[in-house]
Amino acid sequence: MDFHCHLDLYPRAKEVYREATQRNDFTWLVTTSPKAFAATSRALPASPSVLISPGLHPEIAHERAPELDLLLEQMAGVKAVGEVGLDGSPRFRTHYEVQRRIFRAVIKRSVELGGRTLSIHSRRAVKDVLADLDACPGYGTAVLHWFSGNQAELRAAIAHGCWFSIGPALFESENGRRLAGAMPHDQVVPESDGPFAKVGGRPVMPWSAPETAQCLSEVWNLPVRVTADMLASNGANLRKTTEI
Ligand SMILES: [Zn+2]
């Protein structure tokens, strides 16, 4: 399983796609813009095990802001949305207001549509992400991807009821390992975030869930097998409750 993957952006995406459909029960392909969602949905064959969702990545929010209406339109025909969110790091902070306007519009639209499952980017913006979600009850389900806040922000996200999708790259930092160690055992699902996320200089692949289970078992102090089973049942549970 992979709950956050930019599969369309790997070199030789079609081969990666084919292999993912063979190796994974479920792959959530998040796109970075509404136009990319339309192009990817056309380019890749439909598969019952691959969920392709429209998004508008905060890092390119300022360039793709004119596509917001298209995103809001596309949201009517899908159960999941992503990648969306906020990025408050120095490089993207300049366009924070645009990011926020887009993110709030997406959440509001999710409420109108009766709820959506969102794959959310929250780098250096956890507080604002949670505030925007809190302001709109009924938006659906939040899956915070590659969570990188502090322990207090993690506790706030847990209290909000967020899920967490994490992959092998999270464990490269000490903070990441500590956060993973403190995540609720029943609210974590695997992700790759490939090809952006890399380990040892190589992009993480969509079938990296066993590596995530291995890393997680060390910080949870559980056997690898038990951890892998937990991730699998969490994934099944998230999919069942959100109908994705
Ligand atoms: Zn991503």
Automatic annotation (TrEMBL):
Transmembrane segments: none
Binding site for a divalent metal cation 2: H121, H145
Keyword Metal-binding annotated: yes
One Pfam family this sequence matches: TatD_DNase
Coiled-coil region(s): none
UniProt entry keywords in alphabetical sequence: Metal-binding
UniProt xrefs under InterPro entries: Metal_Hydrolase, QatD, TatD-like
Signal sequence region: none
Keyword Ribonucleoprotein: no
Single annotated GO MF: hydrolase activity, acting on ester bonds
Domain of life: Bacteria
CDD domains: TatD_DNAse (cd01310)
Residues involved in a divalent metal cation 1 binding: H4, H6, E83, D193
Name of this chain's protein: TatD DNase family protein
Native organism taxonomy: Bacteria, Pseudomonadati, Pseudomonadota, Betaproteobacteria, Burkholderiales
